[in-house]
Amino acid sequence: MEIKVLFTILLTTILINNYVLSQILGLCPFLGVSKKLDSAIGMGLAVIFVMTLASFITFIIYKYVLIPFNIEYLRTITFILVIAALVQLVEMMIEKFSPALYNALGIFLPLITTNCAVLGVAVLNINSGFVTADLGILKSVVQGFGGGVGFTLALLLMAGIRERLELAPIHKNLIGLPITFITAGLMALAFLGFSGMKI
Fold first, then answer.
1. Is residue 108 part of a domain?
2. Assigned domain for 17 exists
3. Are the C-beta atoms of residues 38 and 101 closer than 8 Å to each other?
4. Best CA proximity match to 59, nearest among 148, 142, 116, 152
5. Number of domains in the chain
6. How far is Cα 103 from Cα 127, in angstroms, rounded to an integer?
7. CB 33 within 8 A of CB 156
8. In the chain, is it the N or the C terminus that has fewer CB atoms within a 10 Å radius of its CB?
9. What is the pLDDT of residue 127?
10. Domain that holds residue 140
11. In a domain? residue 120
């Protein structure tokens, strides 16, 4: 039974409630890094890592620090500090092991800190009742991992489409950001079709 619940959470966060295309969270890195497939892969992996770890750490902090001391109102600032620390860790690792990817990601790597999708996952884990339910921390981590995979899926699809659009004959008024917004809207409509799935 637990495996089925975890699989449902994973599938839901990847396809049905995709944070970028259904919840409209994390659009800044989604639109900024999706120009090339290589940088999209690197950003996607970084977001998966940060979302998964942030879900784990923020859950523990919320349940074992904020709730016992009745300081739940510090949730947002605490979560942002945790996410910022994780992003710094990821940034240092990427700079050390892959300088080319570090340079390709540029300003968008530190922007993971302000990526509302990462903060959204941490807050939704708390608001979903996972704190008090059985398998609470496991569900939170799975939701964080699924959210990261869904973000990466949307990023890779967009990068692939944008690379193809560079070769397509597009009207001069649509080149650049206009065609990107149209493409993102069509992708969101396509993902809306998953909302009819019965799991």
1. yes
2. no
3. yes
4. 142
5. 1
6. 37
7. no
8. N
9. 84
10. 26-156
11. yes
What does the alpha-carbon distance between residue 144 and residue 122 come to, in Å, rounded to a whole number?
8
Domain-embedded: residue 164 = no
pLDDT of res. 159: 94
Please give the Cα distance from 83 to 33 (Å, whole number): 19
Go through 178-199 and write b for each residue having 16 or more CB atoms within 10 A of its CB, e for each that does not. ebbeebbeebeeebeebeeeee
Residue 4: alpha-carbon gap to chain centroid: 23
What is the pTM (predicted TM-score) of this model? Answer: 0.89
d(CA 129, CA 64): 15
Q: How is the chain classified by DSSP, letter by letter?
A: -HHHHHHHHHHIIIIIT-TTTTS---HHHHHHSTTSHHHHHHHHHHHHHHHHHHHHHHHHHIIIIITTTT-GGGHHHHHHHHHHHHHHHHHHHHHHH-HHHHHHHGGGTGGGTT-HHHHHHHHHHHHTTTTTSTTHHHHHHHHHHHHHHHHHHHHHHHHHHHHHHTTS---TTTTTHHHHHHHHHHHHHHHHGGGG---
Q: What is the pLDDT of residue 134?
A: 61
Residues of the chain with pLDDT under 50: none
Residues ≥6 apart with Cβ < 8 Å to 59: 122, 125, 126, 130, 131, 136, 137, 140, 141
